[in-house]
Specification:
280 residues; alpha/beta; UDP-N-acetylmuramoyl-L-alanine:D-glutamate ligase; globular; binds ligand NAX; binds adenosine-5'-diphosphate; binds magnesium ion; EC 4.2.1.136; ATP-binding
């Protein structure tokens, strides 16, 4: 099987001298209830540190203060104000939905509205609770005009695909992906190792990087923010999504050389240095 390697990092471009925040894209994250505010902070913080120009987090207001003290670059929106979220959604390049979201009827409505609203120039990243929120309304995925990136772990993929973990072969995964989603969809199925599936091409590549030092809650939430940051500034393609997932696990491997565990917050802090090293 083909493997992702460091040549993929060529998508990390030197910033043009005459650029400004608008050059590097706008991200809206819909994440975090009162219990899982950390997931929302890690996802939005990772997005800023990966280089997104402007990031807004729609979250439970109980997360606002900690967000501002950890990541003051991130703007906020109340999760309960659907009208404001939908108004903002039409203006951004990337919408990421799911980390730390509560499973509720209102969030089911919101995710459906966002999937129906987004156009073909936009990308929607679905992670974590998004898969449970879609379980009863999977058909909204297939008709989405936006580019899609799905980042479930095996249990979340089971919820969406109805495939037991033992049934999650590459052939089955590609078949279900084709059945459930539009062609412009990538599935990054997280595990050890993780695999990136391309629905249009019906192909799969393996991510060889990653380490058990990454097995800490919030590691996937952080990945969601990195993918959002990469797509916002570099665009949507197989190489760009692959370079985001490779950056996440390659950086973790580097940090694990002299650390027993690598925390999501360490990855976030080291992203700017890592990307500077690989820019071209
Ligand atoms: N600090 C925070 O606020 C955190 C919030 N989180 C949020 O918590 C919510 C629930 O996410 P969870 O993933 O914990 O819960 P889920 O209930 O969705 O799935 C957890 C189950 O899947 C299993 N699992 C996960 N990866 C697996 C793998 N590779 N192989 C086998 N089994 C695997 C776990 O052991 C567990 O039984 C999400 O919204 C998530 O974003 C978590 O990301 C943890 C950190
Ligand atoms: N043993 C491991 N080897 C390689 N990668 C791992 C390992 N354990 C965890 N990871 C990585 O950490 C991330 C975990 O994501 P996820 O389960 O969504 O975490 P969370 O929901 O807590 O944020 C994935 O990118 C996964 O590949
Ligand atoms: Mg997760």
């Amino acid at each position: 099987m083909k493997q992702i390697n460091s040549t993929i990092l060529q998508v990390i471009k030197k910033r043009p001298r005459n650029s400004y925040k608008g050059t590097f894209g706008k991200v809206l994250l819909v994440a975090g209830d009162a219990q899982y505010g950390g997931a929302a902070l890690m996802a939005s913080g990772a997005s800023v540190y990966a280089g997104a120009g402007l990031v807004t987090l729609a979250t439970d207001p109980s997360n606002f203060t900690s967000l501002r003290s950890n990541f003051p670059e991130v703007m906020t929106q109340k999760l309960s104000d659907h009208k404001k979220i939908l108004d903002l959604a039409v203006t951004v390049d990337v919408i990421a939905i799911g980390p730390g979201l509560a499973i509720s009827a209102t969030n089911e409505v919101l995710i459906k509205q966002l999937l129906q609203l987004a156009n073909s120039r936009q990308t929607i990243i679905l992670d974590a609770s998004a898969f449970t929120l879609l379980q009863k309304q999977k058909q909204v995925l297939k008709t989405a005009a936006a580019n899609l990136v799905l980042t479930p772990h095996v249990v979340e993929w089971q919820r969406l695909s109805d495939l037991d973990i033992a049934q999650q072969t590459h052939t089955n995964n590609l078949a279900i992906l084709q059945q459930l989603t539009p062609p412009q969809t990538f599935l990054f199925l997280k595990g050890a190792p993780s695999h990136l599936y391309d629905n249009r091409q019906q192909t799969v590549v393996q991510n060889t990087k990653g380490t058990p030092a990454m097995a800490t809650g919030g590691m996937g939430d952080t990945l969601t923010g990195i993918i959002a940051g990469f797509v916002a500034q570099f665009g949507f393609s197989a190489s760009i999504v692959a370079s985001a997932v490779f950056t996440h696990s390659y950086l973790a491997e580097e940090l694990a050389q002299d650390r027993y565990v690598v925390l999501p917050s360490m990855i976030i802090q080291h992203l700017p240095q890592f990307m500077k090293r690989w820019e071209n």
